[in-house]
Design goal:
162 residues; 27% strand; alpha+beta; five-stranded mixed β-sheet
Amino acid sequence: MPNREELRQIYESTQVLKRPTYGIVSGYHELPYVVLGESFESGYDTMRVRGTIQVSPRFLIRPSHLEPSYAEIFGEENVDAQLMGRVFGFLGFRGRPVECKSEYLEVKHLRQPLDSLVAITRDEFDRYEDVTTGLIITPDTRYYPVSIERFISTVLEDEFGV
């Protein structure tokens, strides 16, 4: 596990190539995204992560020990007993008036080079006139949630100044 400074470096080095081009209004919001980066699996060039984050204003103030558990958010039926540990959270929003949840996640290792996949993804967005999905380049795919956090933070800063 990288130390705090290494995580900060991943966060700062993340490139948000495309953000949603519509304004977020009060309520519950979906932020779909595609994260691309060099694959850490041998035999593959690029790793692609597609997902959707649900972002909502946080109206409840509760003590941290009453925050939802992993099982409450993700359910227990989808937990692989062979998995020793996995952290997927957004640490940078502590004390901010939003709540984030991951609703959909697809991770693929692909043989195409990163530059090629960036171009293909941009073309796909243009072809489908997709103005809602973010495009993110991560410097370290093992810690892609840090790059997703950067994307969310960028959107929140643009929309709410938080």
